[in-house]
Amino acid sequence: MYERSLSARLKRDRHHVLLLGPRQVGKSTLIGSLEPDFTLNLASLATFREFVSQPERLERELLAARPGIRTIFIDEVQRVPALLDGVQALVDAHPRRFRFLLSGSSARKLRRGHANLLPGRIVLHHLHPLLACELGADFNLDRVLAHGTLPGIYADRDADSRSHILRSYVDAYLREEIQAEALVRDIGGYSRLLDLAVASSGRIVNLNALSRDAAVSYETARRYLDVLEDTLILFRIPAWSGSDRASLVAHPKLMLFDLGVRNAILRRPLDRPLDDERGLLLEHLVGLELRRREGTIWPEARVQHFRTSRGAEVDFIVSVGRDLWAIEVKASRHVDRRDLKGLGAFADRARKVVRQIVVFLGARRQRLDDVDVLPVEEFLAELPV
Prior knowledge:
Helices cover 41% and strands 18% of the residues. By secondary structure, the chain is α/β, with parallel strands linked by helices.
């Protein structure tokens, strides 16, 4: 089992926790490693049926529990949002008696179920697929670019098995379960939009153009993307808008949560990254590593992108307080001053640019003017953990 960066924080912190993340990112394994005294697994159909009809039963059972029952784990809590009312009642009436650890894979179901999210009583964390630092010596760039970093899939030593599980995950979860959650009537439209959104992953996307290409209305496209975002499958990296907004592209970048899932949806070969997609996949990997730290490991950071209407661009802008990092990704073993134009255009517009970085495939770090040129693994090793 890979040690997760969030693990030590959850062990030393005594707050109640809601841990959100897509299926198969390791939420149950992580919380299980904290050795809870009582576990309620709502992914079990029998358990779900028992508690969806009697959510008040949780409060009765815990009030009757022996004194040693203190840490309570409720897995896939979004399936029975009414349980959160009982959690609040127990927390308020017995503030030192229990510690609740809750997990979920859909913020949408919690909102749609009018869930009580225990404001002021619970700490929200997100769990993602594995970071490079969590893989440690197991990190292999080509394998990450092809298979992604879902823990159970990456840990499987058989490449054919990894490919089979990835394709099953896509068909059973993304195309069926998420489709059902979206209350989709136009299955063809949803499938087309999913494929187009995934094909656009890592790129700046105009929702009007996306809806036209998928042959669905703008509102339908917006709703489907919202569902994918609420179920933590997709996220948007907003455009930087620090100055002269009229000359900047305002559309966000779309990013799928895992590269292996992206490749499986698009029916790419899963034994290797395609050569003509290596640049896009490498940029996507850097974006995922930055975004997975946002709000948790690197709470003061905010990830954006930069592009002008004249085409100058920087792949990622990271705001750290008032300071800015500008990061460009190049799938090349050589970098020269022509590769720095976007960074220069951004530096001319922005104040407080404290770091300019080019991530590349070379073997050793370089310094080019005011720019750090870093091998990809060295860059990833310098990020907060």
